[in-house]
Amino acid sequence: MNRLAGATSPYLLQHKDNPVDWWPWTAEAFAEARRRDVPVLISVGYAACHWCHVMAHESFEDETVGKLVNDNFVAIKVDREERPDVDAVYMTATQAMTGQGGWPMTVFATPDGTPFFCGTYYPKANFVRLLQSVTQAWTDQREAVLGQGAAVVEALAGAQAVGGPRAPLTAETLDAAAEQLAREYDETNGGFGGAPKFPPQMNLLFLLRHHQRTGATRDLEIVRHTCEAMARGGIYDQLAGGFARYSVDGHWTVPHFEKMLYDNALLLRVYTQLWRLTGDPLAGRIATETVAFLLDDLNTPAGGLASALDADTEGVEGATYAWTPAQLVEALGDEDGRWAADIFAVTEAGSFEHGTSVLRLARDIDDAEPKIQEHWQRVRTALREVRDRRPQPARDDKVVAAWNGLAVTALVEYATLTADPVAGAAAVRIAEVLAERHIVDGRLRRVSRDGRVGEPAGVLEDYGCVAEAFCAVHQFTGEGRWLELAGLLLDVALQRFGTGQGGFYDTADDAEQLVSRPADPTDNATPSGLSAVAAALVAYSALGGQVRYREAAVAALETVAPIVGRHARFTGYAATVGEALLSGPYEIAVVTAEPAGDPLLALAHRHAPPGAVVVAGEPDRPGVPLLADRPMIDGVPTAYVCRGFVCDRPVTTGDALLAQLGVSGG
Measured between alpha carbons, how far is 308 from 297 in angstroms, rounded to an integer? Predict the structure, then answer.
């Protein structure tokens, strides 16, 4: 009996009609394995995963494979996005056993969850042989199997150990990180490393803050070049906005077509901050289009943003997005079709499969004269209308707390810079969903879908990303309840996830006991839980004036500082938070009866130093500590600037405020 029909995960629901008798991850599944005395097959993936779909079609939808699995195993299907803790434990085991990891992840374990054989994608014939071999080994070589599992668990304990070397995260360490990124930078194509090439969102955020602190022009060059290369490449959807997960080549041309919420949220922050610091029109356009993608393509009827758009359309990767010159002519007519082929680099030879091309921006549009820009927009709109009539990729519409938190922070930063009411309202609306649906009895739940919250408990990254988002909404709205909610989540993080030595585990001390307790301080596709919590602690401490939260952030970053200078590409968000601490961070309060349109507030937002917090409103507004006991001087709007809890004199002019922010002119 397949037990996935009631799941909240679209990935699990994709498998609800398989002939495999799938169980969700439950204690009952392992109890059944003990009762039957059979091993457990744990299959881990996610809804937008191309090779997960391939393995599903080849093996899990096959009656013969289903019988082989059902007769000899208890099969458990896991959505890695719902259960990142389970994924982390078994991915560490897979990497330890095979030297690499990925999804789908295929793990064979004892009935107590101890892994003894791990791998990733297997073609059907190989998978059948593997099932037969594991069955035979379990029957005839049980002692060897159990010994292998014990060795894996011992290795896991070492890999997940906490309490290693510590060091202060100093300016010298962050300078070394920036220098390392500069050495690893791809001078030709932007970004770091070769194929496959991932958008380095957190490294770019760090370099922008490092540039602000040090004035290093090299940092800004790296960010500008990388952002332009990505925005003009095939990894960016030239018609609808939004970035794909990664490029399969080293020059951003052909993407792996899935679009993830977390990538686009973090990249929205990058392009918004680049626009704020430079006024670059390309950065401004991409930020605006990314907001539109989030709100048009990932918005869900029950509130919150969906997790991803699939890489495949009807089983074919990229089918929605690729074009031939003839298709452009058919859609636009002969003249505009040829013009579009030129500007989007669509050729007869093609850049993708079967003579098709992924649209790239081969000409500089953002500095073109208005009539060319208008022509380009008309062509884009017409092509988008044609593309919308094609079959569309599936959408994973579960709402993940951490990723929605990242989106809220990004939308607040964009709305603050642009005064866009749509983005601002969306940020508050998503924050309301997180507050009202995902916080249950004072604890975070990881996912919801169709307005129903799921069972999986929030992990550390959920607490950090959502608390940081609530701090952002507090600044944006001036409402005290958001700061109170952020404090609630951070107190849980400190009490339930802390190691007692400054670091953090990724799961709570009262969470389900796995074969090891994951604790990964490095930043990967998203900020690590440690980095996310540190960012929230810094913001919350600055907004609330409570030193112990800042001290907790400093202690957390000390546990990752030894990695920052040596492995900068995997500690980008930790380094970003470190820049905020080195900066102060600044605490800026603008006391005014009319925050909207206040020139002092606009200057504060435009020139805020790295990691600064900014609030505005009437004196002594309830729930806003930075406005307490701060009157308007002579009845006019007044700015109060502090840094690390030490304050300058209040000022009422723009020039005086800019001087306190270290800016020479407006």
Answer: 9
191: its two tokens: 């970004």
Q: Contacts by 663-666 with C-beta closer than 8 Å and gap 24+?
A: 663/607, 666/603, 666/607
| 291-347: pLDDT as tens digits | 999 999 999 999 999 999 998 888 888 889 999 999 999 999 999 999 999 999 999
3-state class (DSSP) for residue 153: helix
Sheet holding 613-617, edge to edge: 613-617, 586-591, 638-643, 646-647
- Is residue 239 exposed (0-12), middle (13-18) or buried (19+ Cβ within 10 Å)? buried
SS3 for 380-435, per residue? HHHHHHHHHCCCCCCEECCEEHHHHHHHHHHHHHHHHHHCCHHHHHHHHHHHHHHH
Global pTM reads 0.93
φ, ψ of residue 163 in degrees (nearest 5): 85, 25
The Cα–Cα gap between 485 and 408 comes to: 15
Task: Yes or no: say if 602 and 657 are a contact pair by the CB < 8 Å rule.
Answer: no
The Cα 168–Cα 107 span in angstroms is 39
User: What is the distance between the alpha carbons of residues 32 and 21, in angstroms, rounded to a whole number?
Assistant: 12
What digits encode the pLDDT tens for the residues 186-225?
A: 999 999 988 899 999 999 999 999 999 999 999 999 999 9
| Among 183, 300, 142, 320, CA closest to 244 | 320
CA contacts within 13 A on the Cβ side of 481: 5
> ω into residue 585 within 30 of 0, thus cis?
yes
Eight-class DSSP state of 658 = H
* Residue 255 structure tokens: 């993407």
